[in-house]
Amino acid sequence: DIGEVVRSAANLVSHQKRGDKIAIKLEIADELPPVNADGGQIQQAIIVLATNAIDAMPDGGELTFMADHQGNRIVISVADTGTGIPPENMSKIYEPFFTTKEVGRGTGLGLAVCYGIISEHGGRLSVRSSVGKGTTFSIFLPMAN
After folding, report:
1. How far apart are the first and last CA of the chain?
2. What is the pTM of this model?
């Protein structure tokens, strides 16, 4: 149940108390079709995306968790109103050890691990970002047959 996995991830992130003035929103469609996936791994991927989103909003903002379906796929999105990803960094964000965080704040492994988890589930990960406006990462997973 992807809706439950997303709710659980959002709940865990909200209890981490990272980031001041972060409003968390949930937009989860009713009666989502099931997916064949390891719920724990998908939750881990969502938490990585959410933690990065919070780090991208040092002055606060809005973190939105979304789950819906498009055609034969489930789409999970994590959106923020943060600093955005500069175009010159977009091609490097999934590379292991690439980080823009200061020393001691991140290893640069989060997105690489996230990408691996989603790929292992036959899904894909996409990103849309606008500098100064925010970023949305979307996970596309095939529905269960």
Report:
1. 14
2. 0.93
